[in-house]
Write a structure and sequence with these properties.
The protein has 254 residues and is of the alpha/beta class. 37% of the residues lie in helices and 15% in strands. Helix 7 (145-153) runs parallel beside helix 8 (183-200). Bound molecules: phosphoenolpyruvate.
Length: 254
Amino acid sequence: MSANYTSRKRHLIAGNWKMNGMLQEAEQFVHDLAENPAPDHIEVALMPPFTLLHPMAELLSEKDVRLGAQSVYCELKGAFTGSISPLMLRDAGCHYVIIGHSERRDIMGEANELISKKLNVAWNNGLEPILCVGEHLEERQDGETNSVLRQQLSVLEDAAQGVALTLAYEPVWAIGTGLTATPAQVTETHAFIHEELSRLGHDCRVLYGGSVKPDNAAELMACPGVEGALVGGASLQADSFSNIVQAAASVAGA
Ligand code: PEP
């Protein structure tokens, strides 16, 4: 494992709004967020639903908050009703795209084959994937966490080294449940993920996700190998999201 991976990149706090958010709420959110700007050593990004990407790009201009999408399809254009193209995401001002979120794996049935295609289409069209990996509760209880993560990370085997990539470790049992992994579980699992990433030639930033809130953010962000957070529920209110950003800033160092 690389010894200094934690200091290579700025910490990222990314807000995944999932299927939430109307235009008026987005306007209010951006207004409120701007009252508490993030320190320079923390990067902030928001992933609203597709309908808000264009207006959010405008609202966020000159605000130093990056925009991302929650998903992408693996084709550029054509007869794919209901899908969104990487070209459209770029056109809307996206830098990031979440790929492999557990809700897409479990509810929409997305698996490694499609996830690999999505990664490639993102890289080929100038988007930085936030690739989510994480085990279910039974898998952790059965001691299978590392083998599940290794299998999910195998989508990176054929990827060119040095591609833009952020990883998010999100234990499925902690997403939207109010449960969080303990600092010991987070530290151990992030160390394993960093080792795997190094072996695969992708020594990138690794976020933690799973019920990150203002009152647990500092403890989670202080775990070795954690370089930010992917935040769901707590990113919907500007004050709780800002408090997470400030908590991360306090432990990430300048
Ligand atoms: C997520 O959706 O990626 C997530 C981590 O959600 P929550 O923070 O609500 O658990």
